[in-house]
Amino acid sequence: METQRKTAIILGATGLTGGILLRLLLEDDRYVKVKLFSRSSTGLSHQKIEEHLGDLMQLAQFEADFTGDEVFCCIGTTKSKTPNKEAYRKIDYGIPVAVAKLSAKNGISSFLVMSSMGANAKSKVFYSRLKGEMEEAVLGENIKNTYLFRPSLIGGQREEKRIGELLFKQLMKVVNLVLAGPLEKYRSIKPETIAKAMIRVANGAYTTPIIESDKIKKIAEGSD
Hints:
The protein has six helices and seven strands.
């Protein structure tokens, strides 16, 4: 069977999950090119990488180069990095929605975006409501293969130190042991798991657009 020769687009490749996703795509023979759109460079040099640097708030500047088979959107910020709610919204809602619009405009048929567990446009919690609103707007672009990944707390080491988050992650390692059955989706999840699942979904035949954390793990393991 002839190997597929696809072009993937990543937004958020300088982040934890996006960086792992990039590495996996570079190792995957189905992909001959990986286009990166970001504010800063990953610093990586690879024959598959095509890097486009600029302000993601102004995506129109990338329109001519924003072509490919699949878009992986791993954009996100945190309250500690972006305490202003308006600025937070521009990143966690504004960028993914703008990316979805540009993907639809350029005829890209697969759009995979990282959301969050508990996303709900009617939630009273700002973060959950924002993610829910983002999901609704993305689905509204009617891209043929749209997938919303809702991971629980993401484990792994980030470049910036977040003491509270690090302590909570240590606690979750213990809590994970008792979260079983219907509670399994609340277990913390590794960024490698999310990245693997995103690639599997992009190359599979999944009919459910919303993928919860426990489902992400099963897909990554190849058991679903």
